[in-house]
Amino acid sequence: MYVDLSIPISRRAPGVEFEQWLHRDGIRQLSRRIRALPGDSRRDRYVNYWRWLTGARRLRERDLPGGCFLSNEFYRMSVHQGTHVDAPFHYGPECAGEPAKKVMDLPLEWFSGPGVVLDVRGCGGRVTPTGVKEALDGAGSRVEPGTVVLFRTDSDLRVGTPAYYTESTAVTPEAVDHLLDLGVKVLGTDCWSFDGPARAMVESFYETRDPGALWPTHLHGREREFIQIEGLAGLRGLPRRGPFTFMAFPIALADAGAAWCRAVAHVQEPR
Prior knowledge:
By secondary structure, the chain is α/β, with parallel strands linked by helices. The protein has eight helices and 15 strands.
């Protein structure tokens, strides 16, 4: 069976602008747009626009079955909205001295492979290498090159509330390094970010003036190459022990440092 691990993007979410043409609206919108169609020459555009102005090239409800055309939706939002993939370019212009990969540079095979869920709900809001080892031992799981490691905190249960952003769990750079040393390239979390609450980081910086307090795991991606998938959901629905295949292909956005994705797990059903 397939398990959906993604958060739907709400039209009412902060930072999202949404417009919808319903089926009745579609006739009016189409009538405007047939003034100029793909492939029209300059002459075609001039003639068709004049015909539209005079009413000879307009559509009305009676011209379509049921008086309806097609619906259409428009979203304007950050590529970090909802469940999304962070490419190394998001962390900085370079990674380990080389130009950092953008979304379209990432090998697709990285985003499909054996998955492991690490239950870090008891880590106190900060995942360390010790916490990773304990979670691996608790799950009885092996991690090897190609494995996708997912951190379960159940933060997704707070989606839609301020607590989703203020009570998230940070995965430390040292914990990331431990997994990278095992050959892992792709990591995922059901929190909004790998770096924990933004307010806590900012307040820590102003108290200490230590630049390392600000988004340390993201900025660690300038030193070592790895992929973060943030905003996952439903990791508690995956087997704690036992194999599953994880898939989360980023949308093909040119020149982007991140992209939305549909994260899914394929779990073998008991026979």
